[in-house]
Amino acid sequence: MDRMKPWGPVLVVLCMNSLNSTVNGAGGGNNEDLGASFIFGDSLVGAGNNNYLQTLSKANIPPNGIDFKASGGQPTGRFTNGRTIGDIVGEELGIPDYAVPYLAPNSTGKAILYGVNYASGGGGIMNATGSIFARIGFQIDYINNTRQQLDKLLGPSKAKDYISKSSIFSITIGSNDFLNNYLLPLVSTGTRISENPDAFIDDMINHFRNQLTRLYQLNARKFVIGNVGPIGCIPYQKTINQLKENQCVGLSNRLAMQYNRQLKNLLTELNWNLQGAIFVHANVYDLVMELVTNYAKYGLRIDTHRP
Ligand SMILES: *[C@@H]1O[C@H](CO)[C@@H](O)[C@H](O)[C@H]1NC(C)=O
Ligand SMILES: *[C@@H]1O[C@H](CO)[C@@H](O)[C@H](O)[C@H]1NC(C)=O
Ligand SMILES: *[C@@H]1O[C@H](CO)[C@@H](O)[C@H](O)[C@H]1NC(C)=O
Hints:
Largest sheet: 4 strands, parallel
Bound molecules: 2-acetamido-2-deoxy-beta-D-glucopyranose
Order of helices and strands: HEHEEHHEHHHEHHEH
Shape: globular
CATH topology: Rossmann fold
Number of strands: 6
Strand order of the largest sheet: 1-4-5-6
CATH class: Alpha Beta
CATH architecture: 3-Layer(aba) Sandwich
Helix content: 40-55%
């Protein structure tokens, strides 16, 4: 969602830190070349899949893209003025082209050796969040297709090595499960009445465990998983709850923090249980909260121009 645009710079810093720790952590000094970046998630990392979907969640209109050099300032379907963290991770890996959106016509042949972007604006962990493609479960169905294409391109044995040793899997998901599902008054009042926050978050974590395990079964080994940011501080939440400039929605942030605690435990569990896999936890929440709180320190200001 474009309302999360201001998070861009923070996520960038965050992901680069995470990536370094992944690279260094991988195989204890046995530095294999990382050649591909497979990107999953929501609008925070989307690169254009929604252009090919019937959805209201689209970003291929200005001013999106105005600072994106690769397109000469034209919108691409990224929900931001510039690059996403996914793009920057690719640059850091030295990949010559950004990971192509899975649904783009040129996501075929050798282009997929640099990775593929499956992310979709509006996406979430739960089935009830977002459109069909946007759900992470479907994104994993699609990498299963890519996986089979890689087998054909490289041969099964090399393809397996490529995925497990030379590829990084970054996943940025979860915010929409709260914003556009659990916390959405019209759609999910029923869910909220029938399911308390503990049960909803347990459900999310259980789904996510299955989804990450599926990626592992497809030979993914190097993971960077972002947690949910302070969603109570985004303009949309502040507006619908009629808060003042320096306030954030307590319930939304508490849900995010509760999910984040359980996510951290999940990643510890998976690091332990899934042999040879490395799950790096990217702490979006604290970084963004620092920006929201001490924005002036980072050269940001409150825009008093209201439409
Ligand atoms: C795929 O097509 C897009 C849009 O035309 C282009 O910007 C991008 O560089 C292409 N990527 C690859 C890997 O061919
Ligand atoms: C979610 O959707 C997938 C695909 O349609 C289905 O296989 C799965 O059982 C669903 N999960 C739940 C909990 O409804
Ligand atoms: C990938 O697809 C194959 C063939 O359709 C299927 O047997 C397998 O269970 C799928 N794997 C995952 C992890 O979804």
